[in-house]
Design a protein that fits this description.
With about 475 residues, this protein is an alpha+beta fold. It contains 18 helices and 17 strands.
């Protein structure tokens, strides 16, 4: 019904900038309805290249299942935080099939004593564009009355200032739930050019942030960036969180030859992307590049041993551009130990499942944003889960009698630590246990009859992509 609002939004603007404080209902995904695009049922199937040359039509609706969609919090805060000269007047804005109605209110914050300590807030109702004039007038009157009431309470007891502090802290805490997924082996991908980002920083910004941006390289891990920038790992985590919060960066696994990429399931090619790619890489066809990643492909497979250094550099830049525009996603190799005819557990199965669960639950709090754990991850996990376990090897039997005992011991240790329960990818195992990739690959080959591998996206990195889309 047109009488019900699609969304209720609260925006404030003061000396600290514009910010959307509240929106109801909260939408975790602001991407427009995918049914409005031409999309294949199988995102990894090959398609006729001529079809992609046709420009995809832009959707003209911001309503999906009765909810406001397609507009991020940053866009809404920019639209509704109007200039002071527009305050105390009717605010009405139409975007496609949505009409926004509000009454911007200017108030002098009670807790602020400096000059020009005024704050603007705007309670906006999102209505269907075809809503009648009487309904629009009623919601405008409601916004105006709410603004007058909040201004009175702010003057009386600083109510609005106190509530804004609570909302801002809640936003920051939510952004910190995301940051708990950060790992030292992760990397950072700036969504703007480093020089442009440095120029946009305020004069009194943190020197540590400047050093981090100056040392930025998508081939480096956060741990390496911390060492190069002469910062602690906790500082790099905090600074990375700020960049993610302000949509200036996202999290990736550092680029290396072993990285495997495939076309993103929600990749959408538009004429703007085609034009932008042509500007960045003249003479290279985006459609051909995308086609090359129809199947999972590693960087090493794309590198030609006879190619010139500048060609290899261009390939890295192309992959970075594709990652920035969400056209590619990285696949990681996960390993699961499945006893077959040649292998069985010598430990009781039930005890092993309890051990694995205990390792996962306790290791989940190993990395914290505020403190770095003492000791190596291996020492911590062994102390948590292996203090009362016997040094019992997996009773592995195979026709291959050339398997060294060291490999059997490594298999046993990694299985008992829970790394081969399907929840850890190779890069994480390499970091946590300080093992070379070649060692793991040899182990997978020697015990291929009981170690089953699968390739999928890292959930931690997928979380940051979903936050960026919001």
């Amino acid at each position: 019904m047109e009488i019900h609002p699609l969304s209720i939004i609260l925006v404030k603007s003061d000396s600290k900038g514009d910010r959307l404080l509240f929106r109801y209902p909260h939408m975790t995904n602001h991407v427009r309805d995918s049914s409005q695009y031409t999309k294949r049922k199988n995102p990894y199937s090959l398609t006729n290249m001529e079809d992609l040359l046709q420009s995809l039509p832009f959707p003209t609706s911001n309503i999906n299942n009765g909810n406001l969609t397609g507009l991020t919090d940053e866009v809404l805060s920019t639209l509704f935080a109007v200039k002071p000269e527009l305050c105390e007047q009717k605010f009405e804005l139409k975007v496609n099939d949505v009409r926004f109605v509000g009454h911007p209110t200017l108030v002098l914050s009670r807790g602020l004593k400096e000059v020009n300590s005024s704050m603007l807030f705007n309670i906006v109702f999102a209505l269907q564009a075809q809503a009648s004039h009487s309904i629009v007038r009623c919601y405008y009157d409601l916004s105006k009355r709410l603004g007058i009431a909040l201004r009175h309470e702010e003057r009386r007891c600083g109510f609005l200032t106190d509530e804004i502090k609570i909302m801002v802290s809640t936003h920051d805490e939510i952004a910190g739930r995301c940051l708990n997924s950060l790992r030292p082996y992760h990397g950072i991908l700036l969504l703007t050019e480093p020089l442009d980002l440095l120029e946009s920083l305020q004069i009194d910004c943190s020197p540590a942030l400047k050093r981090l941006i100056q040392m930025y390289n998508p081939l480096k891990s956060l741990q390496t960036l911390a060492a190069n920038s002469d910062l602690t790992l906790a500082q790099v985590f905090q600074l990375t969180g700020h960049l993610i919060y302000w949509a200036k960066a996202t999290i990736i696994y550092p680029l290396c030859e072993s990285n495997v990429y495939v076309i993103s399931s929600d990749a959408i090619l538009t004429s703007q992307l085609l034009d932008s790619f042509s500007e960045h890489f003249p003479g290279v066809c985006l459609l051909q590049v995308i086609n090359d990643f129809s199947l999972p492909t590693s960087i090493s497979q794309k590198l030609n041993p006879l190619s010139q250094p500048h060609q290899q550099t261009q390939l890295v830049k192309i992959i970075i551009w594709l990652l920035k525009n969400h056209l590619l996603l990285q696949l990681h190799t996960y390993v699961r130990y499945i006893p077959m005819a040649y292998g069985r557990l010598s430990l009781d199965t039930k005890d092993q499942e309890i051990c694995d669960t205990d390792v996962i639950e306790k290791s989940g709090s190993t990395w914290s944003l505020n403190e770095t754990p003492k000791g190596t991850p291996t020492e911590i996990k062994e102390e948590l889960s292996l203090t009362d376990k016997k040094d019992t090897l997996y009773d592995y039997q195979s026709e291959d009698y050339d398997i060294p005992s060291d490999d059997r011991k490594l298999l046993d240790r990694l299985c008992r630590l829970g790394y081969f329960n399907g929840g850890y990818h190779l890069e994480e195992i390499m970091y946590l246990e300080n093992i070379r990739r070649s060692q793991l690959l040899q182990l997978l080959d020697k015990f291929r009859d009981v170690l089953i591998t699968s390739e999928c996206e890292d959930p931690a990195i997928a979380l940051f992509y979903s936050q960026l889309d919001c």
